[in-house]
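Wed. Picked up where I left off yesterday with Catechol 2,3-dioxygenase-like lactoylglutathione lyase family enzyme. The coffee machine is broken again, so keeping this brief.
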Amino acid sequence: MGRPARMQVGAVTVATARPRALARFYSALLGWPYVREEVPKPGEPPDGGYALVCAPDGVAEPALNFEYDPHYRPPAWPSVDGGQVATQHLDVGVDDLDSAVAWAVECGATLADFQPSQTHRVLLDPDGHPFCLCL
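Structure written out below (tokens, as returned):
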């Protein structure tokens, strides 16, 4: 059997302890619409639930889902033996690293101590997920 004609990434789902708060962070950071949210399910804490942020109309980028994970632990950056590992991260293209870092910090991100490259900056979102701002 061959590959189906259409296979397209529609969304990236991010596990978090605070999905609605983290979705608001990425909505502000990227300037993307905060599309919808779901309240916590029975038994979940008040910060639980689900939220969705989508690229603006006409922008062909995957949506970002934020999903409550009761066992979420922030990953270590850079990774450490025995620590929680960031298995994926977002790369965000920018034209100016300095102004993009300043904006990300204003939105609530933290600049990571370890920076492996001159062409991108690693930041941590408010829940500790690393993401990169890349030239």
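Quick read: Strands lie at 11-16, 34-38, 50-53, 63-68, 90-93, 110-111, 120-124, 130-134.
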